[in-house]
Write a structure and sequence with these properties.
heterodimer; A: 498 residues; alpha+beta; Cytochrome-c3 Hydrogenase, chain B; 2 domains; four-stranded mixed sheet; three-stranded antiparallel sheet; 15 helices; disordered N terminus; B: alpha+beta; Ubiquitin-like (UB roll); Alpha-Beta Plaits; two-stranded antiparallel ribbon; 6 helices; 21% helix
Chain lengths: 498, 250
């Protein structure tokens, strides 16, 4: 490995290097690719996770009426639409000056924790269990959910049914399993009837039990492969999440908490209504995804990590008993080493899934769900910010609305976008550990994907800014040779190359 | 006893002056339609209600009912043409049902489902049609206009305001607002106007209503438009006030 390029973002001399691409990255949401540049001795000089799809929601929501945003913007994702539905709704609550009624807030919370449950189950069982249960370089033909169903039928079944239950919670609160309309500016458009509540209650104990067992599986995997799990793709990162006023884990509402990579608090209980004072976004000319950073640390050093691992490690406690007990064990395990391990994501994710199941159980016994006071409206505001802890991490929606009720500006900082640099760090760490100087095999390359999957990235959600995207146009002759090339960089400047 | 004509093999009674459409709906027979509205004079422009009368294709909303006519409506040949007409409307405007607040209450969408329109079938034209959000209480989203002129008719014939009109010809035809500035805020339209109630799609909207109606309670969530339209139609009753066609409908 070259000494002059320790960060592996950009090779000092890319000419004459061999390019290897993992295209597409599989078992993640959306489209992305990884490129590696290697020299003749298989030393790695450059590793990049590229997000190759473009979505553009920030642009085409402009001009639309504000009440459309929670329904329209959620269409950017089919896995975590509820998170966008609710983040946009929270922003619109500010626009209409609402203070949510107890029924509205609890129905939304129920919807959100249903979403956490189904998304975490999908990720752990459908997308990652093949790597974790069979091995990263196991037979690729069996390294998938069908292989899991054959080898571990009970685990596969639980994964499917856990996800199904979460989807049912969403259907009852939002009207549909995917892309519902339940949350509206200032509240919700329906409550949860007694019949609907009882329908969910009949299965909830089983769901809590399975969720608890799932934490056990994640923990056992970590224990049994301690050295691998502890060190795989490990890197130090600053961290960001949202916590309740008393420091508890709260995935629906709270203030922002950031710590540097040594655990020092940078800010705490920060009002997300002014997030731009502490978080800013950088662009790079090789990815459609922006690179957010903590302003106080600057664009080079201020990148950070969000998501289940950060949330579980960075909250003061989890306000449900079973998940809190698991959190304590997670924090104490091996001197706390899992809290900084890339594969610790899976364990933390399952603790959150258990928490979600417990919150759902608690809410289902709350009579406020059957209340009829659904919407509140107050003094109209021009600007609205909604922040929620989505399955993949902190999600920020920010809108400006004019006097005609039309959206004039929108900024989305999506969970996966926050983790952009962190994912790049993780795959560079893996490249140093497993790829550098070795003959490449499919199994070795899958190690890169395993590191990416740990973050549960949603690449479809993450690329929206229009007008700054880098673009490369090539003019080819009939034989495919390049005649001319025009490049637009992220700052909008054009460069022609013969 | 009134005279009858045959619709898809069934006898349909009619009163003098009724059209084939009116008589069919009153007798509990659905003929797909878009621009027809029981409270307004027939318009005959959308052509969805095209039927075969004694072998000739005519618009059933303008065709006077006559004794002895043989009318065909529910046949694949006509439904294929209706499907194409609906597809052309979807391709001509910007109909993004997933984020449209009229979804579930939209006649065009409901017809699409009822006629089993699975794709637009044609290349989308993606016209540039900015919203008119100038009015404090009413939003106009021209993207969804299908040029049925129901708002034009309602505003002129019922409200007496002539707020709306069609302008341009052929593919350039479009809905305009009848004010000097061209903006809705410079008209005397009111939320209580008939023009506010007749838009079959999501063009004329009361502001800040949005998605207040939950999925499951919307007009076409439970029953297809072919059933709903019959509920709305004026029914033929017998001498004792009973309506045979109404039986079984909620």
């Amino acid at each position: 490995m070259t000494d002059t390029n320790n960060n592996l973002e950009t090779a000092a001399h890319p000419e004459n290097l061999r390019r290897v691409a993992i295209e597409q990255v599989t078992r993640v949401e959306g489209h992305g690719k990884v490129t590696l540049l290697l020299d003749e001795n298989d030393h790695v000089h450059q590793v990049r996770l590229h997000i190759v799809e473009f979505r553009g929601f920030e642009k085409f929501i402009q001009g639309r009426p504000y009440w459309e945003a929670p329904v329209m913007v959620q269409r950017l994702c089919g896995i975590c639409p509820v998170s966008h539905h609710l983040a946009a709704s929270k922003a619109m609550d500010m626009i209409v000056g609402a203070t949510l009624t107890p029924t509205a807030e609890k129905v939304r919370r129920l919807m959100h924790y249903g979403q956490i449950l189904q998304s975490h189950a999908l990720h752990f069982f459908h997308l990652c269990s093949p790597d974790l249960l069979f091995g990263f370089d196991s037979d690729v033909a069996k390294r998938n959910i069908v292989g899991i169903a054959a080898a571990y039928p009970e685990i596969a079944k639980q994964g499917v049914l856990l996800r199904k239950f979460g989807q049912e919670v969403i259907r009852i609160t939002a009207g549909k399993r995917i892309h519902g309309t339940g949350s509206i500016p200032g509240g919700v458009n329906k409550n949860v009837s007694i019949e609907e509540r009882d329908y969910l209650l009949k299965d909830i104990e089983q769901i809590v039990t399975w969720s608890r067992e799932s934490v056990g599986i994640a923990r056992q995997l970590f224990e049994q492969n301690l050295s691998l799990y502890d060190n795989f793709g490990r890197f130090k990162a600053h961290t960001l999440n949202m916590v309740r006023a008393d420091g508890a884990l709260d995935l629906y509402h709270g203030g922002l908490r950031a710590r540097d990579m040594n655990g020092k608090t940078l800010f705490d209980h920060y009002d997300y209504g002014h997030y731009w004072d502490v978080i800013f976004e950088d662009v790079k000319n090789w990815s459609y995804m922006k690179f957010p950073y903590l302003r106080s640390l600057g664009p080079e050093k201020g990148w950070y990590r969000v998501g289940p691992l950060t949330r579980v490690a960075q909250c003061d406690f989890i306000p449900t008993p079973l998940a809190e007990a698991q959190r304590k064990e997670f924090m104490a395990f091996n001197g706390g080493s899992a809290t900084g391990a890339t594969l610790g994501f899976h364990w933390a994710r399952m603790i959150e899934m258990l928490h979600a199941a417990e919150v759902i159980q608690e809410l289902l016994h709350d009579p406020d769900l059957q209340g009829s006071d659904l919407v509140s409206i107050g003094e109209r505001q021009e600007r609205g910010v909604g922040v929620i802890e989505a399955p993949r991490g902190t999600l920020i929606h920010h809108y400006k609305v004019d006097d005609n009720d039309q959206i004039v500006r929108c900024n989305l900082i999506v969970s996966t976008t926050h983790n952009n640099q962190a994912m790049n760090e993780a795959i560079r760490s893996v490249a140093r550990q497993y790829i550098d100087g070795k003959k490449l095999t499919e199994g070795l390359l899958n190690h890169i994907e395993v590191a990416i999957r740990a973050f549960d990235p949603c690449l479809s959600c993450a690329t929206h800014a229009l007008g700054k995207m880098p673009l490369e146009v090539e003019l080819l002759d009939a034989e495919g040779g390049r005649v001319d090339m025009l490049t637009r960089s992220s700052d909008g400047s054009f460069c022609a190359a013969a | 006893m009134s005279e009858t004509f045959q619709l898809d093999g069934a006898p349909v009674p009619f009163e003098p002056g009724q059209t084939v459409m009116q008589a069919a709906l009153a007798a509990g027979h659905y003929i797909p339609h878009l621009c027809y509205h029981p409270e307004f004079k027939p318009h005959g422009s959308c052509k969805l209600c095209t039927v075969k009368v004694n072998g000739r294709t005519v618009a059933s909303c303008t065709m006077p009912a006559e004794a002895g006519l043989t009318v065909e409506s529910e046949i694949e040949e006509l439904n294929a043409l209706r499907r194409t007409l609906v597809q052309m409307l979807f391709a001509e405007g910007n109909h993004f049902c997933p984020s449209c607040e009229k979804s579930g209450n939209c006649v065009l969408q409901a017809l699409g489902y009822d006629l089993e329109v699975h794709t637009a079938g044609f290349r989308h034209l993606y016209p540039d049609r900015p919203l008119d959000a100038s009015h404090p209480d009413i939003l106009l989203d021209f993207n969804r206009c299908i040029l049925c002129e129901l708002c034009v008719r309602a505003s002129g014939e019922v409200d007496g305001k002539n707020v709306f009109a069609l302008s341009g010809r052929g593919i350039a035809k479009h809905l305009i607002v009848n004010s000097e500035s061209g903006l809705l805020s410079d008209t005397n339209i009111a939320l209580t106007d008939k023009a506010m109630q007749v838009c079959p799609v999501g063009v004329i909207l009361k502001k800040r209503v949005g998605f207040n109606m939950p999925i499951g309670e919307r007009r076409y969530d439970e029953r297809p438009i072919s059933a709903q339209a019959l509920d709305d139609a004026p029914r033929q009753t017998d001498a004792s006030g009973n309506c045979e066609a109404c039986e079984g409908t909620p």
